[in-house]
Amino acid sequence: MPRELDSLVQLQLALKEADTARKQLEDLPDSMREVHDQHRTAVETMRRLEQQIEVDEHERRTAEAAVADANIKLGQYQEQISRVTTTREYSALLKEIDAVKTKVGAHEEEALTVIERIDAARRELEQVRGDFAALDQRYREQLELWEQQRPGVAAKLADLERDISRLRTFIPNHMLRQFELLYRRLGGDALSNAAKAQVVARGQLEWHCSVCNYRVRPQVIVEIKTSGALVQCERCHRFLRVEDHG
Length: 246
Ligand SMILES: [Zn+2]
Description:
Layout: H1 4-26, H2 30-81, H3 87-168, H4 173-185, E1 191-199, E2 204-209, E3 215-216, H5 218-227, E4 239-241
Parallel strand pairs: 1-4
Antiparallel strand pairs: 1-2, 2-3
Helix pairs in contact: 1-3, 2-3
This protein binds zinc ion.
Residues 192, 209, 211-212, 214, 233, 235-236, 238 line the site of zinc ion (ZN).
């Protein structure tokens, strides 16, 4: 039967490794994070530009149709000029012609602005598409590599889970419950080293918990050292170990 504390130290190590492996299987590995984010950003940028171009093209067609309509109207008014008989009719018609000309100018301006916007978006799209080919290839390669690695990680996780089950049997139930509760609550570290510190006033060495600094009785240190007993820090409840044998 292994010493309880040794089993607990190994158990925490196995739990941590299992957490890492589980996270790897659920999520992308860190090595892929950057290329994955770049890939997604590029895809989103291309989609946004394509949509913008589509909307702008519609706007351009609308403006150009308005220019054409106004030009037809202008032609009709200009034809009417030759048939006008009175000055009043003539000046009224000129007024209409001016108004239509202003309209043509405004719609032409609109069309020009939107064409410039489309050109800029097309240039940007071309640039992103050009860079995307290499990025996409890199992304696919890494994805494939990751798919090859996954079964290995899954097998490792299965091994770790077997180790965890075995190690748990070496630890008394009530201690195990406390430890696992603490491990989850602290996000993965329920152990603390007991460390020595010089106590100047009394000129003797005193032990304390290296996490919360609470004093640890020398008798506890002896128990841990000699039998690998499971003892919790009285303040932070972490399980104490003694690494420094000096
Ligand atoms: Zn403590």
